[in-house]
Every structure is written in structure tokens, then in C-alpha cells.
Design brief:
Keywords: ATP-binding, Ligase, Nucleotide-binding. With 419 residues, the protein is α/β, with parallel strands linked by helices. A hairpin with a 5-residue loop joins strand 10 and strand 11. The radius of gyration is 21 Å and the shape is globular.
Length: 419
Amino acid sequence: MRQVLVVGLGGDIGTYAFQRAAHERFGWPSLVVGPRVTTFGRHSTLARWIIEPDIFTPETLLARLDAIAAEHPDHDLLLFTNLDWHVRVLAEHRERLDPRWIVPFPSLAAFDLVSSKVAFAQACDQVGIRTPFTVAVSFGDAAAVGPADAVAQLRERDLAYPLIGKPSNSADWFAIEFPGKQKIHHFESEAELVDVLAHLEERGYPSEFLVQEFVPGDETHMRSLTAYRDRAGQVTLVAGGQVLLEEHTPGTLGIPAAILTGVDREAFDQAARLLDHIAYEGFANFDYKVSSRTGEKVFFEANPRIGRNNFYVTASGVNVAEVLARDLLPAHVDGAPAPLSPERDVLYSVVPYRFLLRYLLDPGLRARVRTAKRRHGVHHPLRYRGDASLKRRLWVRSVDLRLVSKYLQHYPRPTESGF
């Protein structure tokens, strides 16, 4: 049986969490290729870093992967990333890679379907999944809905502000810059919306920008869902949880910072139905919200990757690296198959526990969080006994404190909307 080398691209916290899971379960070593050592990799011994400043040029990336393959002739090479741009490039150029590369990502067609929020909403409609009312704004196409027409449609619909603005294609959003750009825009007025649309039109933004109704409820009404569908067409993992707190800096707005895991069978079945409908393969990460007004579940998007917060799945009892290995590296897995959904309620958090509690206003939710913490502790992806030198532990502690300072700057107290 050949050795396995896990090669991560970019080095975000989601890639670290997967490499931790692979090391914990199998002892597999890791490399990370990135333009610099990230916050999450600083003082870590889990992975060896290869600094490649030009990692976002396809030819440079492919050449670097060829070099890694040549340096490890006796390994199976498991390629992993949590960036949409890399997922798309790998889907486009999969045939050019050494056949030993294991690339656990969807086909280009499936990637395009889920990474376009317009196509995603259409697919959801076909299988009976509710998505928010959306106006897709295009730029430079006379036949499509332009900025002025979009504003007129929103007036006719008489949607109340706030409204949500987000890119249809996250890879295109990654490449554009303009004053006030955020990961997700929260428009309090029509003037704010018009200003962002003007910036995008001025820059000839190549894909659609979505303006959506705001589903009522604060961020504790948000849910995260992680799924895996294997090469045989079986959904072998569906896991999820209630978001307790999201990140609030402009570049990370909306990313879950704390999750209380749990089973939502209705939503799990909906996600599996969609993945079957589009013949998806690999990990997918869904965001949906439970309306505080109606209680209905509204799906916002599916990311064609595992997601930054994937450690909540491993922490709740199903190791994400094992899920992948059962599909693509079965010789490394013995014993009975893992459960489809983890049943253990655990607290995942990258913010200090006592600081998290200040944002939980619902007494019932606070009690559930306290119970989970008492039973199973707090699960933080960067706190790993296998990567716990004194310097690393002090660094992770400093990262926690910096995150607290960012909340005090950008979101000092909880609000009804989460903004």
C-alpha cells in the first residue's frame, strides 16, 4: 500500500482542519503551497510549506504540482483546497495532472452549476427547495437586467430594506476590487445599493451580482451543512449545525465562527436530493437560514468545496478525511462504514467561550451551548495535540485575542439582524 501525501493549496483554516483530520486518523504527512505562510500555519509542524508567490497563475500552479509529483514518486498525492478559484482551475486542467493526483472535487459542469448562485437557485427550484427572491444584475449586456432595471424591479416588488448583495460567481468576486467591497453586502438603503452597482458597472464586472430579500432572523437562525457524494453516486455524509456567531470583518463577513452541531433531517434530505439531481461528486458546503417569521428553511448557496468550518464535522464524530478515503483511498480504511450523519452535539468555536456567550441572547440557546461545552468541551480546529509546541500554543492564543479585538471594532454587541 502506497504512502499518501496531502497537498493543500492556499492554507486557510479549512485546509488546515482537513489536514489535521488526515493526520489524526491516518498519520498522513502534509505540504501546503501558498504565496506566504498564513496565520493558520504559523509556527505549525503539521505541514511543510512551499512558498509560491504566483500560485494564482494556472501554468505556475500546474508546474508546481508536477514538481511535487516528481519529488514523491512512491506516493499517492491527495490534492486539497478550500478556494473556489483553485477548484475551478483543477477541474479545467485535471487531464494534465499526473494520474497519481487524487482530486476530490466536482466536474467542471457541476462546479459551474453550484458556484453560480443563479444556476443553483434554478436547480433548487427543480427539486422543491426554497431560495430567496433574487434579482440578478448584469453589467455590459443590453439584453440582461442592468443596474437601473434591477432597482426598478426591487421598487415594484416593494421589498423592505435591508437587502443582501452578493456575487453569483465567487471566483470573479475574488478578482475585483473597489472601495467598500465586502464578502456580503448588507444594503440599508437604495443609495447604498446604487453606489455598489455603479462601481461594478464602471469596472465591467463579468458576472452577475445578486440582490436578495433579507430572510428575517439574526445569525443564530443561520445553518451550516456539509455533505459528501462519492463516485458511485451515494451521499455518504450529511452533517450540520446551528450558527451561533459569524465573523464580522468586511472580508470574512458571514463565515461561521461558532457552531452548535445537530441533526436537521429535513434539510439533510433536501441537500442530498439536490446533489443527486446534479450528479455532484465530492464535498459541498451549504448555507441556509430558518426564518424567524415563518420557520421555513431558505437555502442560499452551495460551495463546491468542504468549507472553512469543516472541523465541526470531525469534532462531532465523523472524520472528514476518512469520509474521503472510503471513496478514493479505500485500501487505507478498515472496519464498518462511518455513520451518514454524526449524532453528537458539540460546540465548535474559533472565538473564546466566554466571549461567545455575550452574543447569545436566547436563554434556551445559551443553556444548550453550556450543556454541549460541559459534556464535550469546546472544539477549536487550531488547537491540536499533534501540533502543540509552546510557540504554536501561544500563537493560537494570540490569534484568538486578535479576533476578539476585531469583534469589538466591527460588531461590539449583538443585533436583531446580525449586521
